């Protein structure tokens, strides 16, 4: 997935389907078939629900539903229906916990690495969502995504854990944050 961080004048969503699927290399060098392209430009938070729904579908392995949607109405329903997102989350033993980052220098590489290492110990899927700023959830197992969130001291963060050990994962994350992610606080 490619990201461009510029400024948009207004919100827009464009959806395109190639006549024939083509393969694209991902960050882990696996070839993945591409049969749907969604381009999103956002100038404000009016598209927040759409982005959250899209992220939820992808994070929970439901991206094929988007590809298989037979018409535009079904595709739009998948991207805009809050009920579909909530049903997916509830079906996955999902728990959330919100914290305020105490670290003086924010969530930079060292505390991010500690957090990602802890998250990888659990089978639950864990996302991290900055609540003060860009509120797009990222996969807690991806160091570059976590470190790239730009979370500063005092920013609020939401952790969402889905799976059999979700409670234990959130308890571990709480412990890490209460211990300043291994850093001294000035």
Structural notes for this entry:
It contains seven helices and eight strands; from the N terminus they run ββββααααβαββαβα. With 186 residues, the chain is an alpha+beta fold. Strand 2 (22-25) and strand 3 form a beta hairpin.
Number of E strands: 8
Rg over CA atoms: 18 Å
Residue stretches low in confidence (pLDDT < 50, at least 5 long) are: none
Strand content: 15-25%
Structural class: alpha+beta
Estimate percent helicity.
25-40%
Describe the secondary-structure layout.
Elements: E1 12-16, E2 22-25, E3 31-34, E4 37-41, H1 48-59, H2 63-68, H3 72-80, H4 82-91, E5 94-100, H5 109-119, E6 125-130, E7 138-139, H6 143-147, E8 156-162, H7 166-178
Quick description:
Helix content is 35%, strand content 22%. The chain has 186 residues and is an alpha+beta fold. The protein is globular and about 55 Å long.
Key phrases:
four-stranded antiparallel β-sheet, alpha+beta, 186 residues
